[in-house]
Amino acid sequence: MDERDVVAGGDTDDSHGSRVPPPQGFLEQATVTEDPRPSFENNWPACWSAAGDLLEWDDPYDAVLEDGEPPFYDWFPGGTLNAAYNCLDRHLHAGRKNRAAIHWEGKDGERRTYTYRDLYVEVNEFAAGLRSLGVEEDDVVTIYLPMVPELPIAMLACARIGAPHSVVFAGLSASALATRIEAAGSAYLVTCDGYYRRGDAFNQQRKAENAVLSVDHDVETVVVDRLGEALPHVLGRDQHDYDTLVEAHAGETITPVPRESNDMLFVMYTSGTTGEPKGVVHGTGGYLAYVAWTARTVLDVTPEDTYWCAADIGWITGHSYIVYGPLALGTTTVLYEGTPDYPDRDRLWELIERLAVDIFYTAPTAVRAFMKWGTEYPSRHDLSSLRLLGTVGEPINPRAWQWYYDHIGGGECPIVDTWWQTETGGMAISTIPGVDDMHPGAAGKPLPGIGVDVVGPDGTAVEAGQTGYLTLTRPWPGMAKTLYSGDDRFLQEYWLAHSVPEAGDWRYGSGDAARVDEDGYITILGRADDVLTLAGQRFSTMEIESAIVGVEGVAEAAVVVGPEGDDVHAYVSLEGGTEPSAALEQSVLDRVELSIGRFARPRRVVFTPELPKTRSGKIMRRLLEDVTNGKPLGDTSALRNPEIVGEIRSTIDQE
Ligand code: WTA
């Protein structure tokens, strides 16, 4: 870990704000008002039955936690259950069949509401359809859909028949999809004809077909007709129309397949530092219990609420807190296909008012955009239905926090700044809204039952106030079971003691830099390794860079994020004999779009004779970040070629 740059602060406006107690109005009705942490501490791991008991089990579990070889743990061993049953059937039995499960708002203003009963019916029919195509228990089904109701329906249909799903974000390219289909050995794909992007009908089916063509095995594809007349399409070999399939199984019900608690519910691909996507495997019982428990404890979700997480289901946030957590709790979850600024910049606030949304969960980058657009948009609407606000995905700076608190929450909604990862399955660090004071800029304390240590490179804890690596010291029910490619890589990537023996018995390495403040609150400082967040998802710089160096004539590339937070800036050095040109720049842009997706297209490509490197040859991205963001340069003493940074800066200044 020697030359890794621990990134300096995501907190652009300096010091934290002062502490803010939970608003009185919220306290009066909060679900959790007494801190569960002490009783969890005294009763660990048995305390986690509080989460297990939120579910309905076919066979009860024998124990809460069974020690395996670290870091492999079995949660609720002996228990069997079905996730779709827990998200659907049991709510019908509980007399909530006519309650809305999903309110969907399409990009073109279309609206659909599914009651729990409607959702149950279509999930059963599609589950029967998948079976008729040959899908069996444990077959991985890849789902490549935008934010349409068929996406959660397909996920739940898979869960019902015990087939793990692998949802691939719809904006990813054909080649990224192919890699994921191949890696998961998936022989089934659910996709659509297309979807609207900036008002144009965009062809998704073609991307999916290109992916399937480059996969070594046969893939049966189900195509959802999203666009109708706007994009007429024909079905080819091994392709089936979603509606026809569902109609062919109208009225059929499928007995939910009982799954062992530790059987795989899904795999979710996320980026690794080596550039190869990692298939993070989540189990059934521990995961579902954990997302339900955290949705209730942290987001205060109750069955009576209308709850909106404005993320994409293509990433973990949507899996845990649009689909599984809220539906397990029997609440109404909002599914929004569009963007926040179409038809106007008050679109989200119009929706919150019309649907009387109680709880709203989004990313800080969205909050900063709202802040830039100004208060006139939220002030056009009555947002008084809101009770709680949340953020996830990156640190929220105190200024944006305050704006969100004042202008969206009207000073009456607590904000939970929730830290977690694809691998943690659900939230791990946050305030509990009816218990803890908020501290803008700091995420909060470890949730009940979670142990956190911030450690130095030798694996021992650093003092309060010092920056180090964020590690989790105890297992928790939502944690990933392994990586799809195998246990070895899981060990290498996450188990700190594996690479740093001094770290002790068990320690999960998150890859984030953080510090524990004097009051025990944890401030997250960003990724400690070379990872950036685009379209809400982590990508390793390596993934984008390897796409760029695939362009003929390119020698090396380094990418960093610019001032917008999701704008990629690429620094590219060329092979001898190749000169910078507009055509070459275009090839770089096209290559990134082709191999990753449009959202990863660099905002700017800067050609440079060399990249700044340490003596051991490691690219110093931190300095490129400083240059990109117009910040004073950090320490350049470790550089082999310090003069290059000045050269790059003047190149940029001349542009
Ligand atoms: C970052 C998304 C600061 C962090 C749920 C983490 C955060 C990565 C926060 C995981 C937060 C997430 N404050 N940083 N509240 N929440 N992160 O796997 O760097 O897409 O490691 O999961 O997002 O991203 P992932």
Number of discrete helical segments: 21
Cofactors, ions, other ligands: 5'-O-[(S)-ethoxy(hydroxy)phosphoryl]adenosine
Q: Class by helix and strand content? A: alpha/beta
**Looking at CATH, which topology of the domain at 530-654 would you report?**
GMP Synthetase, Chain A, domain 3
CATH class of the domain at 530-654: Alpha Beta
Q: Evaluate the radius of gyration.
A: 24 Å
| CATH homolog superfamily of the domain at 530-654 | ANL, C-terminal domain
Q: Describe the sheet with the most strands.
A: 8 strands, mixed
Total beta-strand segments: 32
| Proportion of residues in β-strands | 15-25%
Average the pLDDT over all residues and give the rounded result: 91
Describe this structure in words.
With 655 residues, the protein is of the alpha/beta class. The protein starts with 23 loop residues before the first helix and ends with a helix. Helix content is 30%, strand content 21%. The chain has a domain at 530-654: 2-Layer Sandwich (GMP Synthetase, Chain A, domain 3). The longest helix has 17 residues, at 116-132. Residues 270, 315-317, 392-395, 417-422, 443, 510-512, 524, 527, 537-538 line the site of 5'-O-[(S)-ethoxy(hydroxy)phosphoryl]adenosine (WTA).
